[in-house]
Amino acid sequence: MIYAVDHINLVVSNLERSVQFYTELLGFKEIRRAHLEGDWIESVVGLKNIHADVVYIVAPAGEPRLELLCYTSPRGEILSINSLANTIGLRHIAFRVENIHTVARHLKEAGIKVISNPVAVPTSTVTHDAGHKILCYFLDPDGILLELAEYQ
Asked: Which residue ranges does the record assign to the VOC domain (predicted)?
């Protein structure tokens, strides 16, 4: 039986740009790097001639870690439909913050696409154990949909 989330993998087009975005702008900490190639990884992912680099990062509060993975071979492609909230599949990761309005403003000032200003979820819709939720969506440099979430 599953007892925890180990990590979340994000495939990125430019590893150093993504590391800078997640560490310097969002406050994650880099914990490890690795190069991936060989039969073992080709077997796992079902692709041939794998050459990829990965950087593991973690939020200040701890795990699960994010795995920023950049394939140099074979290269993937960016599909703009994956940035839409209603596309089928894994759609976003939500990051808990304090003072969501300040964080959203900081992202906008850094030139990051923030989908909307923070919005409060109506208490008639849902109230979580952590409290009343305020949220907003934004995009990372590859158009990966992310969420800021604050509970009051």
From this structure: 4-151
